[in-house]
Amino acid sequence: MQNCQGNGRSDKGYENWRWKPSQCDLPRFDAKKFLELMRGKTLAFIGDSVARNQMESMLCLLWQIETPVNRGSRKMQRWLFKSSSVMIARIWSSWLVHQFNEKFDYAPEGVTKLKLDLPDERIIEALPKFDVVVLSSGHWFAKQSVYILNDEIVGGQLWWPDKSKPMKVNNVEAFGISVETILKSVATHPNYTGLTIVRTWSPDHYEGGAWNTGGSCTGKEEPILPGKLVKNGFTEVMHEKQATGFNRAVEGVSESSKVKLKLMDITEAFGYRHDGHPGPYRSPDPNKITKRGPDGRPPPQDCLHWCMPGPVDTWNEMVLELIRRDVEGRKRNS
């Protein structure tokens, strides 16, 4: 769904723009170097569909030198690169915390409940198999759910039966709590000593509405120029809560665990890349609508995920650099 050229997008400029840090150099992705550094190890992407987008980007980058073998199951996607015994894995976890649908107190069956103070047990169970983990989430906190803390209903998103009583926790605060919960659990896991990378909030670029109310990024073919970026209030507050949750988790763990927690901040830099989304080119269907209608209404489109190739590949350049530094640090300390 993110193969924009394969889905008919004709402009290609978005493939060539690169983000350049102001105080250092970010090398292009070197697939051979990645496989050498990760020899015999497993990298796992854990989170929602944007985490899947980044995992698929990594597979495509590595596929250029070797075709992996699918070793996945319904519980976990896994791709093995035989020459180096490197495994790329993915676990779907929309909120990163424990979720269930059964009735709880006055919240009825069928509505998703989130125990914000308990991590997703599937992540904790799988952690010992991983050497590097990239965690990312957030966008599902816009979906309907009930928030539970200390076995008490404290809030909800698109769900709150008693409007006369204020919620204790809204969706933004719930996101921050979830980040702190999963990171503390990962950092204190007795059988996991790997590198944990938190990729920050991925900005979307819907204009004129949301994904389901006519929002559009049709026709965006170049990045936003410096100084022209219009701040997105929801993106900013979600990024702030994510960073706060990360910092609280770091403060609450040992010095050795702190070293293994890294915040990979992509939010502001990729706010400029409204050109990098699939837009209406989200399907190979030759009959799909890609132009605005006579009434100006935009076609169905995706302004959240990222084209491949495209800006998302830069995230994996950052991951490779963090892995390189981690490996070098371990060598110095051994």
From TrEMBL:
Keyword field contains Transmembrane: yes
Region spans: Disordered: 273-302
Residue span, Trichome birefringence-like C-terminal domain: 26-321
Superkingdom of the source species: Eukaryota
Membrane topology type: Single-pass membrane protein
InterPro entries for the chain: TBL, TBL_C, TBL_N
Keywords for this protein: Membrane, Signal-anchor, Transmembrane, Transmembrane helix
Predominant place of localization: membrane
Compartments, record wording: Membrane
Residue ranges of every copy of the Trichome birefringence-like N-terminal domain listed in the record: 2-25
PANTHER family: PROTEIN TRICHOME BIREFRINGENCE-LIKE 18, PROTEIN TRICHOME BIREFRINGENCE-LIKE 9-RELATED
Stated family: Belongs to the PC-esterase family. TBL subfamily.
Protein name: Trichome birefringence-like N-terminal domain-containing protein
